[in-house]
Amino acid sequence: MEFDSSSSIWDGVYYHSHLFGGLMLTAALLGLSSSYFGGLGSSYLPYMLSDLGFFYKKKCEKKRIRVYMDGCFDLMHYGHANALRQAKALGDELVVGVVSDEEIVANKGPPVLSMEERLALVSGLKWVDEVIANAPYAITEKFMNSLFNEHKIDYIIHGDDPCLLPDGTDAYALAKTAGRYKQIKRTEGVSSTDIVGRILSSLKDAEACENHDNTSSLPNDDHKESQSNSSHISQFLPTSRRIVQFSNGKGPGPNARVVYIDGAFDLFHAGHVEILRSARQLGDFLLVGIHTDQIVSEHRGKGHPIMHLHERSLSVLACSYVDEVIIGAPWEVTRDMVC
Ligand code: CTP
């Protein structure tokens, strides 16, 4: 089996940098001798400098590392965003393969979101440079060679959870054998399956609530209801470091037009990406207010939101059009928010 390797390119850069250092020293010595011999050596200087320029350029043009991460990215959540953030940190350019609907059906069961929706969500993330639609679920030899040769990928990346095909084999086995595989840490406490579970649980709660309103309440009914509610509440708490990692860390410039938009942004979807893109186009800095769980629950009913405040905030912050978020914004825009 033949795999392209980029190691020679790296050897090349490394080699030139050494040579550059050597030439610098030689140039300094010749510069001295040319003045000592009354400028005899000066005619060689332009050639020398052009040579230096050549090596200097080579050194500056250090190859950019291109990394590839694929996935289903169904019901995209901050765990996916965190995976892509870590992948981007392993290179300079991140290319993301969004697995086709057919491949997901064959390997995991039907996805909730369509290819177009998943593509819009992934493309809207701040760490993503390019996307490949309809990627295969497993890294086949043909696909891997197209990644290396056409897309100039240096490394293929996946989370540290095993990714097995229906026959029990590792979906990334070939990339590992080729020595072009890297791993990132999977984010605990969230998954697409978990989110589907939360949605179902919230529907059950809403149904129970309706029945409760229609029938007379038994003494321990309230207790059962609160038990059912707590079963889908995520325990995820973001650290200040995680928020910093997701943030672009920039404030508005002196004359920036700051645009404010608020909402629940529950189960972050393609429509959210689109509205945030439009809002950002209205000004220079986009500030997004994320309503508290209590406000969302008051306006949307029991069982809402599905994702709690911190989770919703991270999903919004991961969007490339967003500059800053207010974690727990009030329902009404107050004077101090405008000034
Ligand atoms: N991932 C992660 N943390 C999570 C969920 C996913 O780091 N909580 C990573 C996976 O390891 C993978 C990428 O995100 O590298 C895309 O994952 P995906 O193919 O969408 O599916 P799953 O790994 O099954 O995750 P989920 O069930 O949440 O969709």
Automatic annotation (TrEMBL):
Region span, Disordered: 210-234
UniProt keyword terms in alphabetical order:
Lipid biosynthesis, Lipid metabolism, Membrane, Nucleotidyltransferase, Phospholipid biosynthesis, Phospholipid metabolism, Transferase, Transmembrane, Transmembrane helix
Name any GO cellular component annotation: cytoplasm
One Pfam family this sequence matches: CTP_transf_like
Instruction: Give the Cytidyltransferase-like domain ranges.
Output: 68-197, 260-336
The annotated pathway is: Lipid metabolism; Phospholipid metabolism; phosphatidylethanolamine biosynthesis; phosphatidylethanolamine from ethanolamine: step 2/3
Q: What is its EC number?
A: 2.7.7.14
One molecular function GO term is: ethanolamine-phosphate cytidylyltransferase activity
The residues that cross the membrane are: 12-30
Superkingdom, taxonomy of origin: Eukaryota
- Record keyword NADP present: no
Picking any one GO biological process from the record gives: phosphatidylethanolamine biosynthetic process
Family in the record: Belongs to the cytidylyltransferase family.
Quote the protein name from its UniProt record: ethanolamine-phosphate cytidylyltransferase
